[in-house]
Amino acid sequence: xxxxxxxxxxxxxxxxxxxxxxxxxxxxxxxxxxxxxxxxxxxxxxxxxxxxxxxxxxxxxxxxxxxxxxxxxxxxxxxxxxxxxxxxxxxxxxxxxxxxxxxxxxxxxxxxxxxxxxxxxxxxxxxxxxxxxxxxxxxxxxxxxxxxxxxxxxxxxxxxxxxxxxxxxxxxxxxxxxxxxxxxxxxxxxxxxxxxxxxxxxxxxxxxxxxxxxxxxxxxxxxxxxxxxxxxxxxxxxxxxxxxxxxxxxxxxxxxxxxxxxxxxxxxxxxxxxxxxxxxxxxxxxxxxxxxxxxxxxxxxxxxxxxxxxxxxx
Length: 314
Prior knowledge:
By secondary structure, this protein is mainly α. 61% of the residues lie in helices and 3% in strands.
């Protein structure tokens, strides 16, 4: 099969981009969040699944290229759950995260929201996140539904509590002018969402601190389980979840603060919402993959550290 820079020799279950570099991780996440896969027809999906089955059986049709195989795998990974083999509902696919999540983020960033609006959008955001997390969960080791519900209610409670609490404090701050209060209010969603995301991952995965997680050697072979690795992974995941919402919830308010001062928006106040929606969607579509790409998806633990306090390892 023909090899090109964009389409290297096909590897089943692997990324076609170098995951050891930021650029490779960025291209990978732009690929898996590609919303064009949402419009994949049933025939196209079945053809992709059949082509990958033929690859496994070493009976590829004549003329099949690396590009054909990579595109088939992209479609399968975008639509089919890798463990259950079932279709993921469109709003909860990674490729649907931006199209279906952007209206929610626009709602979170509405200027001067009422308490009811604030509670509604925070609840809707955490509900959407919970459905995405559940739909894309690791199903090789079934997680009790009670744990998902525990994480969900913890995330909703923390998000709503922080958003309402901060808004109440801002409105009671007599030393701030109304204009300053309005600007500060725009940034309330970030600490609320960041705290809720961190709370969710801690509640969902705290059992790993006691059970440990599987670790792999360089040959990607499972060599045991480790509580040390679990602690490191949970800490890194919590920090990551705290940072990831930053570009989505901080860039639009900063941009809109300057846009609101323009004569155009002063003359056309009705354009505020559509402009805000465009800025938010662009931030969501491009800043999120950049933020995710900053962090390698696989972490390492030194052998001597792995050996400490891990009596269950093989």
